[in-house]
Design brief:
single chain, mainly beta, 7-stranded mixed sheet, 4-stranded antiparallel sheet, 11 strands, 50% strand
């Protein structure tokens, strides 16, 4: 059973870079056909998919966030970090990492990130 855990600062200042890490256990991020996603939920709003990194290392981002987003991976640690640049208060949200497959999904518990000076 795959388990995911988000970690990182809970407070980021405007214009800075938000950096979070997702640590995966119970499965490898290089398992063929798996994709590993970041999703967020702003207060009072629905879920917003940010992007994913595939087992091959290729990435795909939401068009609305593409210019500010980078998802990478550290296969030695079985982690896939997220970076979101030039943040504003509108980037305040609970951030989740997840594996989303047609017949299976697993989510981290989520981590609150607040953008404020």
């Amino acid at each position: 059973q795959v388990q995911l855990q988000e970690s990182g600062p809970g407070l980021v200042k405007p214009s800075q870079t938000l950096s979070l890490t997702c640590t995966v256990s119970g499965g490898s991020i290089t398992t063929i056909h798996y994709t590993w996603s970041w999703i967020r939920q702003p207060p009072g709003k629905g879920l917003e998919w940010i992007g994913y990194i595939a087992y091959s290392g290729s990435t795909y981002y939401s068009p609305s966030l593409k210019s500010r987003t980078s998802i990478s991976r550290d296969t030695s640690k079985n982690q896939f970090p997220l970076q979101l640049r030039s943040v504003t208060p509108e980037d305040t949200a609970v951030y989740y990492c997840a594996i989303l497959l047609p017949a299976y999904d697993a989510w981290g518990q989520g981590t609150q990130v607040t953008v404020s000076s």
